[in-house]
Design a protein that fits this description.
There is one protein chain. This protein is an alpha/beta fold. It has two domains: 115 residues, Rossmann fold; 182 residues, 3-Layer(aba) Sandwich (Rossmann fold). Helix content is 35%, strand content 14%. The protein has twelve helices and twelve strands. It starts with a strand and ends in an 18-residue tail after the last helix. It binds (2R)-2,3-dihydroxypropanoic acid. The site of (2R)-2,3-dihydroxypropanoic acid has 7 residues, from loops.
Length: 325
């Protein structure tokens, strides 16, 4: 059995896969290109991949031996699940383990944008702090404000729990009502347009899919309060980045806290980088040592189980297989 691991991981996770397969680890601190992935995974029965690896029909066609794709992330938008189903490739991911960690970071971004934490730090380090003054770096109130949670899945739910702790009022969108969030945190379900109009903070927690790509575009940003703050720790493409730039630049909304971007890493000439009212992080929602270590281990456990023909502890449901034309 052969496996490719597309980035170096903690030794215990590597050993888990080595116990059942001959392992090769992509040696660079950058993602392999599509061609490099094909070359390095030739003859592999399984791949442990990251969200930076594109797993699509072309790759799967070039790797006919491949049976298992184990992603070290909960989001699987880089993986063409239909293609995996068609090629008979099973997919695993790492849900649950990063829920609290990512919710913590969403709240960190919310507080940082509302209270202008990064602006304040830049101001101080630049030596501009000459006196205390009444309205210096005055930001937005968090307690008592309304947060709109777009997508009340696992992470949205944990953001709601934290928001309730900050005495915020919570509204949310979801395909179905979430009685636990309503009972525990007093959350109220809304349509997206109602949520946008009511919220002081809008925090995005939907997976990226064809339905959610561009979910927050120019019209949605225009429907928000001019004082509102947008937080995105889900996937960049859920928000139209061009429309967001325009809305921030023209004061249509007040600020944004972003951990994810349409293109990652964000190009250094992206206009968002010119705005003072955006806090930007390099996709570190789940980046604590403990959580990333657990994610690596779950991904390794999924791969090892799949390679042995056992059920993966965390399988991703695949669409129905389509017949080849
Ligand atoms: C995920 O798991 O999908 C995150 O974006 C990375 O932790």
């Amino acid at each position: 059995m052969r496996a490719l691991i597309s980035r170096d991981l903690p030794a215990k996770a590597l050993d888990t896969v080595r116990a059942v397969a001959e392992v090769s680890v992509w040696p660079h601190n950058r993602p392999p290109t599509a061609q490099e992935l094909v070359e390095h995974a030739a003859d592999a029965d399984g791949i442990l991949c990251l969200l930076t690896d594109r797993i699509d029909d072309a790759l799967l066609s070039a790797l006919p031996k491949l049976r298992i794709v184990s992603q070290m992330a909960v989001g699987v938008d880089n993986i063409d699940l239909q293609a995996c189903a068609n090629h008979g490739v099973a997919v695993g991911n790492t849900p649950g383990v990063l829920t609290d960690t990512t919710a913590d970071l969403a709240v960190a971004l919310l507080l940082a944008t509302a209270r202008r934490v990064c602006e304040g730090e830049r101001f101080l380090r630049a030596g501009e702090w000459t006196t205390w003054s009444p309205m210096l770096l005055a930001g937005a109130e968090v307690h008592g404000a309304t947060i709109g949670i777009v997508g009340m899945g696992r992470i949205g739910f944990e953001v709601a729990r934290r928001a309730a702790g900050f005495k915020m009022r919570i509204v949310y969108t979801s395909r179905s009502p979430k009685p636990d969030a309503e009972r525990l945190f007093g959350a109220e379900r809304r349509s997206l347009s109602e949520l946008l109009a009511e919220s002081d903070f809008v925090s995005v927690h939907t997976p990226l899919s064809s339905e959610t790509t561009g979910l927050i575009g120019a019209a949605e940003l225009a429907a928000m309060k001019p004082s509102a703050i947008l937080i995105n720790t889900a996937r960049g493409a859920v928000v139209s980045q061009r429309a967001l730039y325009d809305a921030l630049k023209n004061g249509r909304i007040s600020a944004a806290g972003l951990d994810v971007f349409e293109r990652e890493p964000i190009p250094m000439d992206d206009p968002l980088l010119t705005l003072p009212n955006v806090v930007m992080l390099p996709h570190i929602g789940s980046a604590t040592v403990a959580t990333r270590t657990r994610m690596a281990q779950i991904a390794a456990d999924n791969l090892a189980a799949g390679l042995q023909g056992l059920p993966m502890p965390h399988p991703v449901a695949l669409p129905v297989r389509m017949r080849a034309q």
